[in-house]
């Protein structure tokens, strides 16, 4: 069963440390998005990379529309990976929806995790006035998903620039665009619907694992108000506002991402 799960999620393990550090990609991306970051930690940690089912080199035959119609299905995958690898007290680093997937996994099985690091997370992408500003109106997201269905390549080009807020180097934008284009369009659209229309605000107070929230500047996907909301509602959380702009600091600003991670892990190690 363990080998089947490793193949399903294309799990890769390397590094010289004893404590595990799990990196989860965000929407439309595979594990390679972490390449610029994991090198800095492989001498001190056991690095675990994986792909969400339907992305990267995961087993596409394992994709089940019912299971992955909610983020809990993806969180169950993380729990099963941890179980298969007999993991305890791992540091979970997730980007965007990958961060929320890790949060849900930590609620289900907190002993698997010692810390959560959430990069550009959002519990809910829709505006819900007067008390919550997620950044999008429902019509905006329906329009994005409609574009995915009608012109997937055009959507990938547009969304890559939007996610990076047009401030990243052209090569980084193209790299993200190519990752979107390598995902099956039907699965990508279903994952988009699952991501953008899920509401996990009520789960935030259930988190028992110390949590670092990285909030980028000028992040259209997860604006400042979302980072503040998460920090207010997740117990034992720390919010760090980055100089990095856009939504993918691990791609556009890897040095700052590494620096913040190192500082946080050193501090939490001292506390523990």
UniProtKB/TrEMBL annotation:
Keywords (A to Z) from UniProt: Hydrolase
Gene3D superfamilies in the record: alpha/beta hydrolase
Domain AB hydrolase-1: 21-254
Gene Ontology terms, MF aspect: hydrolase activity
Domain of life of the source: Bacteria
Family matches, as SUPFAM superfamilies: alpha/beta-Hydrolases
Family designation: Belongs to the AB hydrolase superfamily.
Record protein name field: Alpha/beta hydrolase
Source organism (scientific name): Anaerobacillus alkaliphilus
């Amino acid at each position: 069963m363990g080998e089947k799960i490793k193949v399903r999620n294309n799990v890769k393990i390397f590094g010289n440390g004893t404590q595990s550090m799990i990196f989860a990609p965000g929407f439309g991306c595979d594990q390679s998005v972490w390449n610029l970051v994991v090198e800095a930690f492989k001498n001190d940690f056991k690095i675990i990379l994986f792909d969400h089912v339907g992305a990267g080199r995961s087993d596409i035959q394992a994709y089940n529309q019912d299971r992955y119609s909610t983020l809990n299905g993806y969180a169950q995958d993380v729990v099963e990976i941890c179980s298969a690898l007999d993991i305890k007290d791992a540091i979970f680093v997730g980007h965007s929806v990958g961060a929320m997937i890790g949060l849900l996994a930590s609620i289900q099985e907190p002993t698997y995790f010692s810390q959560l690091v959430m990069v550009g997370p959002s519990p809910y992408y829709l505006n819900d006035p007067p008390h919550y500003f997620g950044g999008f109106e429902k019509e905006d997201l329906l329009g994005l998903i409609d574009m995915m269905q009608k012109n997937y390549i055009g959507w990938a080009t547009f969304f890559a620039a939007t996610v990076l807020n047009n401030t990243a180097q052209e090569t980084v934008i193209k790299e993200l665009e190519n990752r979107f284009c390598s995902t099956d369009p039907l699965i990508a659209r279903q994952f988009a619907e699952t991501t953008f229309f899920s509401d996990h605000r009520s789960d935030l107070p259930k988190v028992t694992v110390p949590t670092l929230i990285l909030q980028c500047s000028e992040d259209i996907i997860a604006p400042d108000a979302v980072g503040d909301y998460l920090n207010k509602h997740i117990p034992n959380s720390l919010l760090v506002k980055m100089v990095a702009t856009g939504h993918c600091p691990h791609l556009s600003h890897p040095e700052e991402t590494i620096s913040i991670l190192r500082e946080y892990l050193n501090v939490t190690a001292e506390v523990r």
